[in-house]
Design brief:
Number of helices: 0
Number of strands: 11
Structural class: mainly beta
Strand content: over 45%
């Protein structure tokens, strides 16, 4: 069993900041990738940012320069610092890990709502 506990979502005005965190635990030998995806109403789920175990990152073009992903390998934790938030960032944000336990697997968190509105 794997658990992903997400935190940090909420409501903020345009231009504000939020920090999302996701802690992984359970039957995990090692984590290859940790990332954040989001899904807005009526839209498909999309990658926001991803970070490898070595620290390489990948961002959606729409969040470059505003969002920063980081991870603490010792704590199996990934963070997403979101600055200069825009109304179009409103979505449910999901944590996803790609990990090794006998074989390569992936697992999704339950999601946390981020609402950017004046």
């Amino acid at each position: 069993q794997v658990q992903l506990v997400e935190s940090g979502g909420g409501s903020v005005q345009p231009g504000g900041s939020l920090r999302l965190s996701c802690v992984a635990s359970g039957s995990i030998s090692s984590i290859k990738h940790m990332g954040w995806y989001r899904q807005a109403p009526g839209k498909e789920r999309e990658l926001v940012a991803m970070i490898t175990s070595g620290g390489d990152t990948n961002y959606a073009e729409s969040v470059m320069g505003r969002f920063t992903i980081s991870r603490d390998n010792a704590k199996n934790t990934v963070h997403l610092q979101m600055n200069s938030l825009k109304p179009e960032d409103t979505a449910v944000y999901y944590c996803k890990i790609v990990y090794w336990f006998g074989r390569e697997r992936d697992y999704w968190g339950q999601g946390t709502q981020v609402t950017v509105s004046s």
